[in-house]
Amino acid sequence: MSMMTRSRNQKGYTLVNALFILVVLAALGAFMVTMSGVQSRTPVLALQGARAYQAAQAGIEWGIAQSAAGVCTASSAFIVEGFAVTLACTATPVSEGTTTYNVYEISALAEMGSYGAPEYVSRRIEARVTGL
């Protein structure tokens, strides 16, 4: 009699173990799928970030060239390889002794996508130039 009771209790224990192992394996599988998705998107976003930096750098160089010509527009925008580049420039006159010159503060923002979207990428570069 005692042996039969023990045998019945052990069958239920095996079912609990099997359910626990299934839950753990399902959680591990879900984690691996999530990590695989993140790892596949990370290099793409890094590449887009580098491209955004280069587009912003092109904007800064264009702003410096405009400043050298004496043109400093408060805001302008253009497209570089699909990135919307917004350029801002301010000129501040500085006097040192008898010499007066302008210090140009140039800011370039390169963006692709809409803010809040998972594929949104942006880079901002600022530069201060003088002696032009």
Fold and architecture overview:
This protein is an alpha+beta fold and 132 residues long. It contains 1 helix and 4 strands. A 4-stranded antiparallel sheet has the order 1-2-3-4. The longest helix is centred in the first third of the chain and has 67 residues, at 2-68. The N and C termini lie far apart (102 Å). The relative contact order is 0.14. The model has no long low-confidence stretch (mean pLDDT 89).
Q: How are the SSEs ordered, and which strands pair?
A:
Layout: H1 2-68, E1 75-80, E2 83-96, E3 99-112, E4 121-129
Antiparallel strand pairs: 1-2, 2-3, 3-4
Q: What is the share of helical residues?
A: 40-55%
Q: Based on helices, strands and strand pairing, what is the structural class?
A: alpha+beta
Number-wise, the strands total 4
Rg on CA atoms, Å: 31 Å
Sheet with the most strands? Answer: 4 strands, antiparallel
Output the strand order for the largest sheet: 1-2-3-4
What is the 3D form?
rod-shaped
Along the chain, the helix and strand elements come as: HEEEE
- Low-confidence spans: pLDDT under 50, at least 5 residues? none
Please state roughly what percent of the residues sit in beta strands, choosing from under 5%, 5-15%, 15-25%, 25-35%, 35-45% or over 45%: 25-35%
Average pLDDT figure: 89
Alpha plus pi helix count = 1
Distance between the termini: 102 Å
Keywords:
51% helix; 1 helix; 132 residues; alpha+beta
Short description:
This protein has 132 residues and is of the alpha+beta class. The protein has one helix at 2-68, and strands at 75-80, 83-96, 99-112, 121-129. Helix content is 51%, strand content 33%.
